[in-house]
Amino acid sequence: MAHHIPLPLPLPLRRRLHHLFILALLAVASGNPSPGVYDRGAEEAEAYSILTFHDYTPPPPPALPPPPAAPAATCAGDLGGVGDLDTRCVVPVSVRLEGGGVFISGNGSLQLLDGVSVTCQRPGCVVSANLSGDIRFGHGARVVAGWVSLAATNITLGDDAVIDTTALAGNPPDKTSGVPTGIYGDGGGHGGRGASCYVNKGQTQEDSWGGDTYAWSELKTPNSYGSKGGSTSVEKDYGGGGGGVVWLFADEIVMNGTVIANGGNGGTKGGGGSGGSIYLKAATMQGGGKISACGGNGLSGGGGGRVSIDVFSRGEEFRMSRQCRSSWDTL
Ligand SMILES: *[C@@H]1O[C@H](CO)[C@@H](O)[C@H](O)[C@H]1NC(C)=O
Ligand SMILES: *[C@@H]1O[C@H](CO)[C@@H](O)[C@H](O)[C@H]1NC(C)=O
Ligand SMILES: *[C@@H]1O[C@H](CO)[C@@H](O)[C@H](O)[C@H]1NC(C)=O
Ligand SMILES: *[C@@H]1O[C@H](CO)[C@@H](O)[C@H](O)[C@H]1NC(C)=O
């Protein structure tokens, strides 16, 4: 993966912000993977103008669709942990999940010790937790899966902790998949269109696109996977996978780590997958983490995904950086 350049956002305002809503629309792809854009304050108007342009009707108040079902998990059995999910479950060593993933619920807390990873490296594999207590990721702790949905009183990602759904998307929505047609190695689409290096007769490069934009109706509660990049071969699939989905819901989120839903890279024979979806909802959020739902690189870049951050109040300490590749980052 290419170089990541974190960009600090302006310092938080020195007062309580009322229901600060940051909607990040990840823009159209060019030859490069498309970058994410965080909109704040005045820039928010611009974001909404895009919606108007697309004849968009506002969604009902955020209703949280249930994550895909997965079998109920136990602390010792599924997570190799110590304790139980109705009091406190501590996972001391890394675990590789089998099957479709895990659904974790209980009245207790969950803690991944420093450096521990919970991995389910299959497209669309679910790691879902809904706990009354806390969820804590120690330093360098990781969760890797296609759909990661965590709800708890507090969620804490320690330094260098990572939630990574890169290229692990399950199936995109039915009607408009965003997956490019043909064998031109085009990029997948989602928040933006994928790029294409193939120019149709009578069209210019600027008019040539890969996969389509989709999922306009869930801008505030994005829940779509990114789509796959195209291939240059009918026999072999060289396209990068789409980015997955990450949802985090808590009263307080401490984000010192990284949340990633990037599309996969397609290499020289396939298009990049498009970015997936990230939705964070909290009363307060602090820390200095990174959030990324970029399209993957490839013969043609994948479109960006969607990021929605719905935070009532940002702690004085909260700062966030964006990490997409491409020259756009230097803007
Ligand atoms: C969890 O807490 C709720 C509400 O306090 C209670 O009704 C439920 O029985 C508890 N569940 C367990 C497994 O302790
Ligand atoms: C978590 O579980 C509670 C109680 O079962 C439920 O009310 C709530 O909607 C769940 N939250 C999410 C995000 O699924
Ligand atoms: C969540 O965090 C708050 C503020 O740091 C703390 O007061 C509270 O006890 C935490 N909740 C739990 C369940 O640990
Ligand atoms: C998060 O980062 C802040 C600032 O560096 C630090 O004060 C805090 O202890 C960190 N928290 C965790 C859980 O790593």
Describe the model.
This is Dirigent protein. Residues 1-31 form the signal peptide. Keywords: Signal. It comes from Triticum turgidum subsp. durum (Durum wheat). With 331 residues, the protein is mainly β. The chain has one domain (75-330). It is 5% helix and 28% strand. The chain is built from two helices and 20 strands. The strands form two sheets. Strands 2, 3, 4, 6, 7, 9, 10, 12, 13, 15, 17 and 19 form a twelve-stranded mixed β-sheet that branches. It has an eight-stranded mixed β-sheet with strand order 1-20-18-16-14-11-8-5, with no helix packed on it. The chain starts with 6 loop residues before the first strand and ends in a 9-residue tail after the last strand. One 2-acetamido-2-deoxy-beta-D-glucopyranose is lined by residues 64, 130, 151, 249.
Task: List strands and helices in order, with pairings.
Blueprint: E1 7-8, E2 20-25, H1 42-53, H2 75-79, E3 82-83, E4 88-91, E5 95-96, E6 101-106, E7 109-112, E8 117-119, E9 126-131, E10 134-137, E11 142-144, E12 147-151, E13 154-157, E14 162-164, E15 245-255, E16 258-260, E17 277-286, E18 290-292, E19 306-314, E20 321-322
Parallel strand pairs: 4-7, 5-8, 6-9, 7-10, 8-11, 9-12, 10-13, 11-14, 12-15, 13-15, 14-16, 15-17, 16-18, 17-19, 18-20
Antiparallel strand pairs: 1-20, 2-19, 3-4
One 2-acetamido-2-deoxy-beta-D-glucopyranose binds at residues 133-134, 153-154, 252.
